[in-house]
Specification:
Blueprint (H helix, E strand, L loop, with lengths): L1 H7 L1 H4 L8 E3 L2 E3 L19 E4 L5 E4 L9 H13 L6 E3 L17 H29 L6 E4 L2 E4 L6 E3 H5 L5 E3 L13
Parallel strand pairs: 4-5
Antiparallel strand pairs: 1-2, 3-4, 3-9, 6-7, 7-8
Helix pairs in contact: 3-4
Length: 189
Amino acid sequence: MEEGARVFGWNEKWKGWLQPSAVTCAKRRGVGVGVHGNSDVGESVSEAYVRLDPNGTASIYSAVSEHGTGQRSSLCKMVAEVLQLPLDRIFLSPSDSAITPYEFGPVGAPLHVRYGQRLHRRSGRGAQKLFQFAAPLLDADPEDMETVDGLIFSRRKPDKKIPWKAALALIAPAWGKGGSSLISRSSIS
């Protein structure tokens, strides 16, 4: 910082707070400085869950807070892309640690990368579980299945589709959660 100040000529140009270094008619010129620091402070311990509901919606459970750069809407877009659902069918929990898994905090740009990777995996795990439930109903292999707009189908027989509700039943959402790949089909969790 001292070398930067020397090269810039800070000592010669700085006249004090709110004091211009030069005035030409109505124009005022001044100098300023900004400093930013970043470090890896262990933010990789954050977590998120994705729940696929029988009504063809997905709910994201995350304590990520909005601080002006669109991180909450980005989470919805990531899940919508993986599950091929319209954004109005993706729901995001409040940022409340009483109902969501742990979140370290935004701590800069890594938030989107960190959460993007996790939500992609969680959404994919939920979809895999959904396909396992749907496979017997469609007489298809789970690896050959896709979901679009809340409907499940086999790539080999794309005309035969069933809604998520048929695969999940009313009280059995498919969860994509946890670092241990835990996805369960259970009654109300």
